[in-house]
Design a protein that fits this description.
single chain; 387 residues; alpha/beta; Rossmann fold; 2 domains; five-stranded parallel sheet; three-stranded antiparallel sheet
Amino acid sequence: MKKIILTGIVLVFLSGISLIIAKYNRNDPFIYICIIWALACLAVTIFSKIKLLRLTTLYLLVILVAFGVMEFKTKGKDSPITDAGTLVSKGLYQRNDVLGFAPRKDVSVTLQRFYKDSLLFDVRYNIDQNGWRHPTESTNDSAKTILFFGGSFTFGSGLDSHQTLPASIQTASDDSLDGLNFSFIGYGTHQMLAILENKMEIHSLGNRSPKIAVYSAIPHHIIRCNGKSAYDFVGPYYKLENNNEVKWQGPFHGFLTSSLFTLFSKSHLLKRLLFKNDHFTNNDLETFFAIVAQSQRIFQERYNGDFYVVFWPVAEPFMSIELAWFPKIIAGLTSRGIKVIDVGEIIPDLLVNKSKYLIPHDGHPKAIANQKIAEYLVKRFKQDSVN
């Protein structure tokens, strides 16, 4: 009886240590977990007097060593990008019942991103009391308000606040346009629709009535809004109905499944095996189109404004996709009456001169790309308002 109790205590202790490592070690938690359990199995194999137990732990030891070796080898194939700063130590993410996850409110964090030993960027993210990274409010009382949606491209990953697209629009328009940024790192099309359906933009508007909405889309958003990304396990799940509209079903996964997926996603090997999904189906594409169209419809009915999609024809480092898909995606959106602006037309050398417009090894837009897009959009908005 004492041996059983002692064994139970040891198992609980090792499990607790493993969970702590899994939660707080960002880089190689499963390697350390394998080492801990392998040593435990080795000890039992050597010192136990029960033959069946020794045999069982020996098999487990072989499996753990094999998994650990594969984990280590797979790590070598991953991008050697590491992060530091208060975003890492204090965190920026929190659970959100509607969006799955969201930035913590009223915080300021720093982020330094390295590729091997080279610093890619050193920035600060300021989140306001409503939980958004809005640029400085325009001092022009007659400025038109624009709502911006999207993921890290719109949020301004790797950029200071004044370099983001919403802030660049304000600068390019001489403060005649006032941007509000309802995006976040990792967000997709489904979060945009959830924000609009639940009127989550209202708190930041005050007395302003937006007349323009801009959604910056990348091909990986098709993966995200269909629940196939390697990190958004509790985001809003929209199911495509027979009438080509989408209906909210709740989160992609429940608490237990999402917790397991979150744990598995920290493994270099399991992440590749379970969540490496670079391909989307025609149904995935139709769901994406329907979510964008439904978002446009809500915005136009609520604010009687113009809705634009700024499409980035880039894939890496998020996914692999054939170039032939880009015009198909644009055509699918325009066929639904959505105004699409192709960044490839604004920046013709985008794909052949990536290092000029995208942060090397990271893939997010540089300030110069946002400046060019902002200048184009300001002219386009004026042209459309005249017509």
